[in-house]
Amino acid sequence: MLRDRGRASTLTACATPGVSAFDQANGDLWIGDVGQDRWEEIDYLRAGTPAGTNFGWSYYEGNHVYKPQAIDRARLVFPVHEYSHAYGTSVIGGYVYRGKAIPTLRGWYLFADLSSRRVWLMRGPRGPVGLAAVSGQVGTVASFGEDASGELYLVSLNGQVYKIVR
Asked: From 3.90.190.20, 3.40.50.2000, 2.120.10.30, 3.40.50.410, which CATH number describes the 2-163 domain?
């Protein structure tokens, strides 16, 4: 069960939910769900979604059949984004940027991949996805952080914390 400011969400059938975060502006929940064999995914739940959301594991890995089984697809919630292991093998869920320092980034969800060292930006749950330009000195992103003002940070396996700036 995940809880934020009194809101609770019960999730079922996530392969390996990694970093998940509530959007400060509206309480929506974003989940980086580490895949099994071929696909990494970003899951999303709008605030107020009833408990018991089923993300389809082990029937599906991302939007792809993982193990053929009889299931009512209408009861499943599919990812808002997925990428194959050709682009990375361990998604690191992030946060929606709500800070003031970078107005053009407000409302974008940032996430990364541990193995490929890529950082992506996604504009809302159905919006476009793009690669972020990140300094080479950051190294491998292990996690994200968010301060009370909505500014975001990258946590690197090299032991450093980096504030996201223009």
From this structure: 2.120.10.30
CA distance linking residue 37 with residue 145, whole number of Å: 28
Q: Are 118 and 131 in contact (CB under 8 A)?
A: yes
Q: What pLDDT digit, counting tens, does each position of 40-74 carry? A: 999 999 999 988 899 998 899 999 999 998 988 89
Q: Please enumerate in sequence order all residues whose Cβ is within 8 A of that of 153, keeping only pairs 6 or more positions apart, or say none.
A: 144, 145, 146, 147, 161, 162, 163, 164
Q: Which residues contact 157 (CB under 8 A, 6 or more apart)?
A: 139, 140, 141, 142
Helices and strands, counts by H and E, the chain:
0, 17
CA 92 to chain centre: 7
